[in-house]
Amino acid sequence: MNSKKVLGILFAVMFFVMVGFGIIIPVLPFYAEELGASPFELGLLMATYSVMQFLFAPMWGRISDRIGRKPVLMIGIAGLALSFFLLALATQLWMLFAARIIGGLLSAANMPTVTAYVADITSEEDRGKGMGIIGAAVGLGFIFGPAIGGVFSSGNLAIPFYLSGISSLITFLLVAVVLKESLTEKGASQEKKRPSLLEAFKSPNANLFILQWFVSISLAGLEATFAYFAYDRAGLGTVELGYIFMIMGLAGAIVQGGLVGQMTKRLGEGKVIQIGIIGSAVGFTLILFVQDFLTAAIFLTVFGLGNGLIRPSVSSLLTKKATSGYGQVTGLLSSFDSLGRIIGPPLGGMLYGIAIFMPYVSGIILSVLALGIYYLYMNRTNALEGHA
């Protein structure tokens, strides 16, 4: 199979995975509340999934380096389907927690394995484009999923969970029937010689993990607080916010699906990462001046365009520089992404309680720090290459 066709299949796989995940986002809080969850318990329920992803993504990445991408991806998607059906059948709060733990543990395999698959099948020149296509699939899935969940939740709150489970089963069949294994026997034998996890983390590439962590914290903080901010500043309700996030998501998906590949080919991943971080910082700054629907939509889209450049470029650069298996590297990156999503919402909420502009000021600060970390990475890399 040629790489264009495979990328199309991987796009479909990640799109359906994220649609299934997104369907339950607007429903889970109300579903948990019906089963007696307090606001604190709801927060724990949401965090549980990210904690499991943080803990297990590197493990699944390493396993995919050993046994292949396809079986690990099938485990991840099957685990996601199982968790959705368990959520639909839950009658007590502990059952929701069990379903989220199982879902987080097993579905932690999906993102690092798909990203490693892209690294397997693309040349270094086309790596950024491939990573961008996967990023676009994730973004579009997050747009359509919550919309579908909102529509189908009106009659019975369990229906979106069944829909997510069915979507995951269809994706499982797509992978099982259509997708070929990308890890060659030669590649698998080379992975056995990989350095330890600690050695991989001591490399200059570790700076890129920290950079992604900061970016993830700032994004999660924005997502957790912008609804309150937009209401306080401009009186915007849930319908307007839905449109705003849809516009931002579409802009980000267009950038990742098309622009990232062209930009990384022309400028290199490093320059694109810098442009993305600066764009995010500008977006955070503009958000402070939101006055109405139009300014909120424009300013959040500026942020989305910048933010959309970062993750695909970081993934591409890490896999190019990897001295260990692609799965190990992409697993670590996914883990840091999840850690940011654990810390970001409570941090953003706490800062918002101090002053409503604080989450966005902290976003600017984290962006500046991320840029500084990138320059440290470059200096360290250049110094090592100079010694070599």
TrEMBL record:
<dbReference type="InterPro" id="IPR036259">
    <property type="entry name" value="MFS_trans_sf"/>
</dbReference>
<feature type="transmembrane region" description="Helical">
    <location>
        <begin position="72"/>
        <end position="91"/>
    </location>
</feature>
<feature type="transmembrane region" description="Helical">
    <location>
        <begin position="350"/>
        <end position="377"/>
    </location>
</feature>
<feature type="transmembrane region" description="Helical">
    <location>
        <begin position="208"/>
        <end position="229"/>
    </location>
</feature>
<feature type="domain" description="Major facilitator superfamily (MFS) profile">
    <location>
        <begin position="6"/>
        <end position="382"/>
    </location>
</feature>
<feature type="transmembrane region" description="Helical">
    <location>
        <begin position="97"/>
        <end position="119"/>
    </location>
</feature>
<feature type="transmembrane region" description="Helical">
    <location>
        <begin position="42"/>
        <end position="60"/>
    </location>
</feature>
<feature type="transmembrane region" description="Helical">
    <location>
        <begin position="131"/>
        <end position="153"/>
    </location>
</feature>
<dbReference type="InterPro" id="IPR011701">
    <property type="entry name" value="MFS"/>
</dbReference>
<dbReference type="InterPro" id="IPR001958">
    <property type="entry name" value="Tet-R_TetA/multi-R_MdtG-like"/>
</dbReference>
<protein>
    <submittedName>
        <fullName>MFS transporter</fullName>
    </submittedName>
</protein>
<dbReference type="GO" id="GO:0005886">
    <property type="term" value="C:plasma membrane"/>
</dbReference>
<dbReference type="InterPro" id="IPR020846">
    <property type="entry name" value="MFS_dom"/>
</dbReference>
<dbReference type="Pfam" id="PF07690">
    <property type="entry name" value="MFS_1"/>
</dbReference>
<feature type="transmembrane region" description="Helical">
    <location>
        <begin position="272"/>
        <end position="290"/>
    </location>
</feature>
<keyword id="KW-0812">Transmembrane</keyword>
<feature type="transmembrane region" description="Helical">
    <location>
        <begin position="241"/>
        <end position="260"/>
    </location>
</feature>
<feature type="transmembrane region" description="Helical">
    <location>
        <begin position="159"/>
        <end position="179"/>
    </location>
</feature>
<feature type="transmembrane region" description="Helical">
    <location>
        <begin position="7"/>
        <end position="30"/>
    </location>
</feature>
<keyword id="KW-0472">Membrane</keyword>
<keyword id="KW-1133">Transmembrane helix</keyword>
<keyword id="KW-0813">Transport</keyword>
<dbReference type="GO" id="GO:0022857">
    <property type="term" value="F:transmembrane transporter activity"/>
</dbReference>
